[in-house]
Amino acid sequence: MHTGPQPDFILVVSPVSASAAVGTVTSAVTITIDGENGFTGPVSITIGGIPQGIVPSPSSSFSLDSGGSQALTFAVLGSAPAGTFPITVSASSGTLAHSAQLLLTAEPAVTVHTYQNGSVLYLESDTASTTSRLGLDTQWGGSIVEVSLNGTNFVNWHDTGREVQVAEYDGNAHYDGCAGCTGVFGWNPVQGGDKYDRGSPVLSQTLSADSLYIKAQPYQWNPDDKGGGPDQPVLGDVYVEATVSALTEHAFTFKVHYKITHFGSDQHADSIQEFPAVYTNLGYDQFARYSGQAPWTNDAVAYFTMPQLPAGSPTLYASEQWAAFADSGGNGLTVFVPGMAPYVGGFAAAGDNGPTGIGTNYFAPRTFFSFGPGSVLEGDVYLVAGDYQHARQVVYDLHDSLPATDIFAPFGSVDSPQPEAQLSGLTGVAGWALDNVAVANVEVDVDGVAAGTATYGTSRPDVAADWPNAPPDIGYTFTLDTRQYANGPHMIVVKAFDPSGNVAVFPQVPVTIQN
Question: Helix (H, G, I), strand (E, B), or coil: what is residue 333?
Fold first, then answer.
């Protein structure tokens, strides 16, 4: 009598969702049969629960052999009802049967047009019953002052530091953190403008039939410690270009392609860059993102209420690279940044509500970059207005159809030696580094010259206390022979590289060597 494992098969459906607007076709879903314990097939596949007006290709029944796969798409016809529908994929072979779920979203047809009203360039993505609109204010560096649905604007634009916009930071700089920034506040070109509400100049702009373009030179947020003041803004050493388009295959969805060019000759150390900063109005207080470790499976979303200032900006895990501020009905603004580290941070600020009210909610993806001479940070941000559950399905489709991107640098720290330490003999240089893809290697420089390559992959489970779900083996160590250098002051700099060539230049560590 045979008592060993019985032949069987595994049904795999990937991805687990598909979506498209009326008149278009979804990206492909792949159905695969993997045999186990000598199973040879064939397997009959049926697709159930397909609404009228949606046509699968191939048809709703076909056969697969063990080890075989089939790409499946859905054409959304004009008669299709809008909504998200659970589709059942059933597989059977003799007495063996398995099934899997697929979420299919049919979206209404989209029309796109542009226009200008005063200083604001508008791009609309409309359906037969709903108008979504994005607005760039050319008096405020082309920052996004509106993402709205049927006239309800989700974006707060109380001052030039708010809106949806990009801003740059330097890991070597000091930021006093106060709202008025009356003291030292380091390198910080802000697309919208400076703390005195002077809008950054737009150098060029284009309003085409279906897209918007601006090029701006941001002001430094705090001019007071950079040769300017209340009567004199200070231009930053970057250009910001933004091209905005609306996706016709997805309703209420805008793509912003940013290009930030640093034309300065200086080096700005690795830091979180606001790519972008996202400010919404009060009332959209439910912060939603996926915080689990099974991304892209339609697993349950996590909800959070941001702490009020000055409690700080907690680091939250967001493994699907999107987050949203929504109201109790689930409507609000969703932002997806392909390639970001799986973290976001934010806060809430009490006060008057409305687009120009002082009260606001804020979040920013954890996007890290080091700006050196000639550095360019270029990539896409997607903004979806309305129901964040619809937005999540849009994000899933984008994730499945877009090529993988790796534009951001690793991040981490130098834990030893400490700044201003006195070193002698053999001294350890240690810290940790993490990347959304991988850390290729870690280099230690002294006075701008490579001293050697660190050993990477040592255990640092403590990092997860600040960066949830960080893997434990992200530490690096290096033994520096200080006897190779003259006594006196020196500068240690650690650099972390990812496989795409992005370089994180960690903040400088000034030390004194005394042998």
Answer: strand
Tens-of-pLDDT digits for all 515 residues of the chain? 456 789 999 999 999 989 888 888 988 999 999 999 999 889 999 999 999 999 999 988 999 999 999 999 999 998 888 888 999 999 999 999 999 999 999 988 899 999 999 999 999 999 989 999 999 999 999 999 999 999 999 999 999 999 999 999 999 999 886 655 667 899 999 999 999 999 999 999 999 999 999 999 999 999 999 999 999 999 999 999 999 999 998 999 999 999 999 999 999 999 999 999 999 999 999 999 999 999 999 999 999 999 998 877 899 999 999 999 999 999 999 999 999 999 999 999 988 888 888 899 999 999 999 999 999 999 999 999 999 999 999 999 999 989 989 999 999 999 999 999 999 999 999 999 999 999 999 999 999 999 999 999 999 999 999 999 999 999 999 999 999 999 999 999 999 999 999 999 999 999 999 99
Tell me the C-alpha distance between 66 and 2, whole Å.
22
Using an 8 Å Cβ cutoff, are 22 and 75 in contact?
no
Count the residues in the chain.
515
- CA gap 301, 15 in Å, rounded: 18
How far is Cα 9 from Cα 98, in angstroms, rounded to an integer? 8
Residue 216 and residue 203 in contact, taking contact as beta carbons nearer than 8 Å? yes
3-state SS of 410-442?
CEEEEEECCCCEEECCEEEEEEEEECCCCCCEE
Angstrom distance (rounded) from CA 416 to CA 126 = 55
Q: What residue type is 346 in one-letter code?
A: G
Where do runs of H (alpha helix) occur along 345-387? Answer: none
Residue ranges of domains in the chain, CATH in brackets: 8-107 (2.60.40.10), 111-401 (2.70.98), 411-513 (2.60.40.650)
Query: What count of other Cβ atoms lies within 10 Å of the Cβ of residue 186?
Result: 19
Backbone angles phi, psi at 385, to 5 degrees: -90, 145
Q: Which contacts of 443-446 are long-range, i.e. CB under 8 A and separated by 24 or more positions?
A: 443/494, 443/495, 443/496, 443/497, 444/478, 444/480, 444/492, 444/493, 444/494, 445/492, 445/493, 445/494, 445/495, 446/480, 446/485, 446/490, 446/491, 446/492, 446/493
Q: Decide: residue 150, CB within 10 A, 0-12 exposed, 13-18 middle, 19+ buried.
A: exposed
- Of 363, 296, 287, the C-alpha closest to 325 is 287
